[in-house]
Amino acid sequence: MNMRRISSDMPNTDMQYSLRRQEERLAKLDAKLGTGERIHELRDDPMAASHAVRFESYLARLNRYEQNTKLAMEQYNAMDSYFREFNDILQQIRELGVKGANGTNGPEELKYIGIEVNELLKELVAIANKTDMNGKQLFAGDKAFTEPFRVVDGSVEGGGESMVVRVEYRGAGANRSTQISDGSYTTLDIGGGEAFWAEKMNIVSRYDAADYRVTQDSAIFVDGIEIQLTQGDTLHAVVAKINESSAPVKAYVDPETRGLALEGTNAHLIRLEDRADSQVLQDLGLIKASNDPYAPNWHETALVSGGSAFDMVIRLRDALLRGDHEFAGSQGLGGVDLALGGMANQLAVEGSRYQRSLHTWMRLNEEIENTTGSLGREKYLDFADAATDLAMLDFAHRAALQTTAKIIPPTLLDFLR
Questions:
Q1: How far apart are CA 64 and CA 323, in angstroms?
Q2: Dihedrals φ, ψ of 210, to 5°?
Q3: Which residues are bridge partners to 226 per DSSP?
Q4: Mean pLDDT estimate for the chain
Q5: What is the reported pTM?
Q6: CA–CA distance from 344 to each of 57, 92, 314, 348, 351 (Å)?
Q7: Closest C-alpha among 133, 202, 129, 204 to residue 168
Q8: Local structure of 201: helix, strand or coil
Q9: 3-state helix vs strand vs coil in the chain, percent to 5
Q10: CA 132, CA 110: separation in Å to the nearest integer?
């Protein structure tokens, strides 16, 4: 049986121990009040600490997603504004085309209308080359610092000055995206080859490739989609692999040229590229090697059709300058209508992307509020309860000091120490 030794110093030791414990509790509570957090060490509340870590990690992700969603909404708002401006100018051009196609205007009046259309065409190009507040091109795809549309000037039949004869796209496809929730992304960019295209493209090679074979394992890119090819693949095998991919084109063998032909499934600029270790598309006569990565790379013998909104406006303008009101009223206005239809489609796409981002942003803000509340319950102090606890601890400490003073009165030895 353990015996406890009783001595005159024992009450003093017990009191000192109790007072130190009280002071320790007061110090911990003071520290928590100073930081506002109730967990300073894992042992304070291991379960709450683990929950708080998970909530903090999730909250950090939610805040990042919320910022990404705001960025996407700003991007879509800017694009929507320029699309609407582009659409309005196209409508003005159509009205001018209708005016020039009614047959009551003479050659001189048609020429003046054509010159006005040419000026509006320049404004369309200026809109397509707009940048955002950071100086990045909005419609160059992921080539954000490359001006997407290059104007080629020259002489036009019936025109009395240097005019726009061609508008070339030098940008890329829309490859940049941002994450807006766990496992969910939205596309930020839109290439000018999609945004401002009017007709479905057709590209037909004039090379007879009936006996063609791929010479080595390689790959090609169609609209940014990589398509793997195997040594020995025939032309029909290449066609099948392109059609099996997600690229928005239909491939076939042209019955006249017996060469590879591609047709867009929607109105967009078809982009073709050989991988660095391949020249399949060059061998098939669709593209040519080029040192200028921004220049059109169609092979000079390939048959290429299907133009942009700018091509449609140029077609109408040229008809007006020639005084050909019949062509202006048929193919000229028809092309502008195609451009307007493409722009209506882009407005719908951007509007739907904005609405999706808006709903995601609203949901994220609600989740952020809920997660912040859960984190607060696990990690942060309830100041009302903490103030009450502090007052009770302080009262108990003062009472302990008063009791100690009565139980252990000072003696002569205390003054001699």
A1: 58
A2: -60, -35
A3: 221
A4: 83
A5: 0.78
A6: 42, 15, 20, 6, 10
A7: 129
A8: coil
A9: 55, 15, 30
A10: 37
Closest among 345, 300, 315, 274 to 203, alpha carbons compared = 300
Which residue in this structure is represented by tokens 């407005």? 347
What CA–CA distance (Å, rounded) separates 224 from 259? 22
Residue among 208, 239, 233, 201 nearest 218 (CA) = 233
Question: Using one digit for the tens of pLDDT, what is the confidence trace for 50-97?
Answer: 777 787 888 899 999 999 999 999 989 999 999 999 999 999 999 999
**In degrees, to the nearest 5, what angle opens at C-alpha 201 toward C-alphas 199 and 207?**
155
Instruction: Confirm if 264 and 248 have CB atoms less than 8 A apart.
Output: yes
Domains and CATH numbers, the chain: 55-196+308-367 (1.20.1330.10), 202-305 (3.30.70)
The residue among 242 and 142 whose pLDDT is bigger is 242
Ramachandran area for residue 36 (φ above 0: left; ψ -120 to 50: alpha; else beta): left
pLDDT (tens digit per residue) in 52-65: 778 788 889 999 99
Task: Grade residue 135 by pLDDT with cuts at 50, 70 and 90.
Answer: confident
Find out whether 204 and 261 touch, Cβ atoms under 8 Å. yes
